[in-house]
Design brief:
By secondary structure, the protein is of the alpha+beta class. The protein has one domain. Helix content is 40%, strand content 21%. The protein has three helices and four strands. It has a four-stranded antiparallel β-sheet with strand order 2-1-3-4, with helices on one face.
Amino acid sequence: MEFAMILPLLMIFIMCILEAGTIGYSWLTVQKAAQTGARFAATGQGDEMGSRLTQIAQVTEEWMTTLDNGSKEIVISSWPTTDASGDGITDDAGGPCQLVEVAVVYNYHPFTPLVGAALPEVIKLQGFDRKLNEPWKPCEE
């Protein structure tokens, strides 16, 4: 009799742990994807061929292949100086010695039946990282 009374609470507790673990994994994946994208962006690879933005997005997306439950957005921005004042220039990875940012937004959808009903329908997970571009060409003053 006691087990029948405790079982529903135990199941809810287990579902909470599963949901929290999945949200944590998703957030860490988003953070790591942004960090990896920014690290790649700072190298300047693809600048000569004009495919730098595409390559940065591909490297970032590779880290997010395990997240298939929601929509993903990758935003690449740059600033002409190192102080990152203002909004920056969107869809631009910047030049040598400029600041670049890779931001990732992932819309997580809860999957557990009981816990998911108590959570919002969509949980927005965000991660970003900024790096100073390497001087692959002489830096402009």
